[in-house]
Amino acid sequence: MTTITSVSREARLFDPPEAFAKAARIPNREAYEAMYKRSIEEPDAFWLELASELHWFQRPTQGLDYSNAPHAKWFADGTTNLAYNCLDRHLESARRNKAALIFEGEPGDVRVLTYQQLHREVCLFANVLRRLGVEAGDRVAIYMGMVPEAAIGMLACARIGAIHTVIFGGFAAEAVRDRVNDAQAKVILTQDGAWRRGSVVPLKANVDKALTETPCVRHTVVLRRTMNDIEMEAGRDHDWNDIVKSVDAKCPAPALPAEQPLFILYTSGTTGKPKGVLHTTGGYMVGAYASTKYVFDLKDEDVYWCTADVGWVTGHSYIVYGPLANGATCLMYEGAPNQPDPGRFWDIIERHRVSILYTAPTAIRAFVKWGDHYPLKHDLSSLRLLGTVGEPINPEAWMWYRRMIGAERCPIVDTWWQTETGGMMMTPIPGAIPTKPGSCTVPFFGVRPKVLREDGTEAGPNEGGLLVVERPWPSIMRTVWGDDQRFRDTYYTRFPPRDEEGKSWPIYFTGDGARRDEHGYFWVMGRVDDVVNVAGHRLGTAEVESALVAHRSVAEAAVVGRPDELKGQALVAFVTLKQGEVAGKTLKDALLEHVATEIGKFARPDDIRFTDGLPKTRSGKIMRRLLKEVAAGREVKGDMTTLEDFSVLAKLSKDDE
Ligand code: WTA
User: Fold this and answer.
1) Domains of the chain by range and CATH?
2) Measuring from atom 19 of ligand 1, which residue has the nearest CA?
3) Which of 246, 285, 467, 578 is the most exposed place for a label (fewest CB within 10 A)?
């Protein structure tokens, strides 16, 4: 077997709405093709031109420097400052009085920071960091909830050249300890507590626990948010508001080299300890800026809302750096989507007149499950563009998003990318590229994706294979922090480098399976570890999941393989039902029949288990590794620091229905 059998055949095609295309920066397919062609044929000139829309102290004359491949450098002879580009640049125009951040707390409090105000806060906090002994290149951990100060902390680091590592506020003390130690952070920024579904997540108490085993940390700065009791150690722990009063607001942005490290973000592999993905300043900045501008077709009037958490790469690139570099108005919401009820998102969109919404398939499936009456109660007419990211979206969830939220008026951008890629890699350009439900469509500028067979030859149309990217793009990760060998091994050894134009070009392996259809559209099938081999068919489990979700009773499905003597692997499906549906043998048989007719008998799960919920990582990805163990009847072990809800797991382990 050299290929992955791909079975989904989604034929629906939606043109960009005419009114949208007319006003778009890239108004038709030809315009996209011309720009894409130039980005591939003259990448250095293309990216230098985009870079010149931003502020540089020393203008770069160089694009890519690949002399130390697979380590890419971009704009290496330039100097810049990302915080300057996100803030100071906008103070020269009327944008200075424009809302940069509109914050809505979970309890309902709203706070608006204009560009001028945000600039002041960042300058103050940059001076706080300096006072605490932080210098360029030092690491600062940020373990906070979704509050403006998290963004202020990030921008303050970027301003002085310190490297931030944001640790998602849902992680436990052990996970904080491991990441802080791996990065050797000097300072931790945190809060007394964070609001989550009406209760307090005790962030400072978790930090205290971690601090007993993190000798590298000298100081913490603690924001008061939930006003719960906390311990403060004199000399080590500082109250955010007090220490800010002790510094002045003058903090000119220094010129930093383009390759100045910007942040480390930890991302879990399938096994082993998390990888610290390192991004640097210039290339990441240009990538985040350009993708935000063109993929969201961002206009000065937009109210843009990305529902991700700043603890994930989506929050870095598309809440903070990309939108602010574009001078956008960004909404930031602190809490859960179902607090106080599952209508919260729609209520926020109605009250703040949100025009662009960027969210995750897992959230969309939850909304489908909660029922149509929540969005129907609200006026969503301010929306003009929708986006998704994080995992393959099932065509039925996509159709629901288009119909219920977008009123068939808003284009949907399904954006494929990774922590490692820094920014979007494959995505529709909303005014130019017709969309197909479930497909991330075509490459973004400068990106050369390919689908390869195991032996490295290119897969044919609709033939499933392994997704790779040829040639570096500006926002590609630079290395794994402290483990360069792991960087080479994980991404650059799966396929041998290719000789072209008298040079040797390493091939970046994404870890995802994909196919390219007869129109050249890409369909990402998920991680290759989510590929199962049933009776000689290697199947992307996401496709069986999509078939299940297309059934009217099903809200969400996760399909994994289990060892099987006869077939090599058997398929086990974990299924959650829509409200009011009844689990039982009748439905089980109906679902099996449904998959058999949708895909074929070979794809029919051997076992269907009904469950109230699926175990998920904090970023909403289904933890298939755990489900595999449950399916195989093994005891569940291994690293569970990213598990959302342990009770879900306990329920699954017990026998089904
Ligand atoms: C998956 C999130 C299909 C994919 C930005 C990738 C997607 C991993 C999509 C990266 C999409 C992300 N369609 N799959 N639109 N977006 N993925 O590092 O498997 O948290 O490799 O970055 O998510 O997840 P990460």
Assistant:
1) 1-81+286-527 (3.40.50.12780), 531-656 (3.30.300.30)
2) 526
3) 246
Range with the largest mean pLDDT of 140-154, 533-547, 579-593: 140-154
From 512, 619, 642, the mutation candidate for ligand 1 (largest count of ligand atoms within 8 A of CB) is 512
Predicted confidence at residue 272, as pLDDT, reads 53
Residue 617 in contact with ligand 1 by CB distance below 6 A: no
Q: Is the CB of 314 under 6 A from ligand 1?
A: yes
Q: For the stretch 100-133, what's the b/e string if a residue is b when 16 or more beta carbons lie within 10 angstroms of its beta carbon?
A: bbbbbbbeeeeeebbbebbbbbbbbbbbbbbebe
Q: How far is the CA of 417 from the centre of ligand 1 (A)?
A: 5
Contact in structure between 592 and 606 (CB atoms under 8 Å): no
Q: Is 359 helix (H, G, I), strand (E, B) or coil?
A: strand
- pLDDT tops 90 at residue 213: yes
CB 150 within 8 A of CB 142: yes
Q: Would you state the pLDDT for residue 637?
A: 57
Q: How far apart are CA 472 and CA 474, in angstroms?
A: 7
For ligand 1, whether the C-beta of 543 sits within 6 Å is no
Residues 464-505: pLDDT tens digits? 999 999 999 999 999 999 999 999 999 999 999 999 999 999
Q: Is the beta carbon of 289 within 6 A of some atom in ligand 1?
A: no
Which tokens is 79 given? Answer: 């100097």
Q: How far is the CA of 56 from the centre of ligand 1 (A)?
A: 31
**Distance in angstroms (rounded) separating the CA atoms of residues 307 and 106:** 13
Between the CA of 370 and the centroid of ligand 1 the distance, in Å, is 24
Report how far ligand 1's centroid is from the alpha carbon of 270 (Å): 14
Give residue 488 CA to ligand 1 midpoint distance, Å: 20
* Residue 70: cis peptide before it, omega within 30 degrees of 0: yes
- CB distance 219 to ligand 1 below 6 Å: no
Rounded to whole angstroms, the Cα distance separating 361 from 367 reads: 10
Residue closest via CA to ligand 1's atom 5 equals 418
Q: For residue 98, which of 119, 113, 84 has the smallest C-alpha distance? A: 113
Which string of b and e fits 639-652 if b means at least 16 CB within 10 Å? eebbbbeeebbeeb
Ligand 1 centre from 242 Cα, in Å?
Answer: 40
173-183 and 203-211 helices cross at what angle (nearest 10)? Answer: 60
The bridge status of strand 568-577 relative to strand 554-564 is antiparallel
Helix, coil or strand: residue 622:
strand
How many C-alpha atoms does 359 have within 13 Å on its Cβ side?
27
Atom 22 (ligand 1): residue with closest C-alpha? 418
Average pLDDT, the chain: 92
The neighbour count for residue 18, using CB atoms within 10 Å, is 8
- Transcribe 147-211 into DSSP letters: SHHHHHHHHHHHHHTPEEEE--TTS-HHHHHHHHHHHT-SEEEEES-EEETTEEE-HHHHHHHHH
Query: What are the tokens at 382?
Result: 């301010």
pTM (2 decimals)?
Answer: 0.90
Most confident residue range from 142-146, 168-172, 264-268: 142-146
594 lines ligand 1 (CB under 6 A): no
Length, in residues, of the chain: 657
User: Could you tell me if the CB of 391 is within 6 A of ligand 1?
Assistant: yes
> What tokens were used for 391?
């995992």
pLDDT tens sequence across 315-344: 999 999 999 999 999 999 999 999 999 999
d(CA 477, CA 465): 23
